[in-house]
Amino acid sequence: MKKTILFTTLAVLLLVALPGGVCQETGNHPVYEYATARFMGADTSIIWPDGNSDKVVGLSSKARPETADTRMFYLTLAMNIMGKRGFSFVHMEGSDLVMQRAVGK
User: What is the Cα–Cα distance from 68 to 81, expressed in whole angstroms?
Assistant: First the structure.
């Protein structure tokens, strides 16, 4: 019985002692949308937030120079295309690239 009263008292004190601002307010955080690219050589594609897919070579008139590394060339093109549309780099793992842009608060 004493343990129950003790735990109840501690629980009430903790609830009273916690400041009201522990939880962050909703609505103050930016909302993001994401675009991804996957390296597949000349078939490297970008998936846009609306679900549409475009091949990088169809969005750029640049031809890969003989001396350019294939992977770096197409991923650089993809990042520049997405960057021009307001996206910024978030994450890259293996052959996948993720970029985001803020769309509101």
Answer: 18
> Does residue 6 fall inside a structural domain?
no
Domain that holds residue 40: 31-104
The whole model's pTM is what? 0.70
Q: Per residue in 46-79, pLDDT tens?
A: 999 999 999 999 999 888 999 999 999 999 999 9
DSSP single-letter state for residue 85: T
Strand ranges in the chain using DSSP code E only, listed in sequence order: 31-38, 45-47, 53-55, 88-93, 96-104
Q: Tell me phi and psi for residue 72, to 5 degrees.
A: -65, -40
Domain assignment of residue 21, yes or no: no
**Residue 70 lies inside a defined structural domain of this protein:** yes
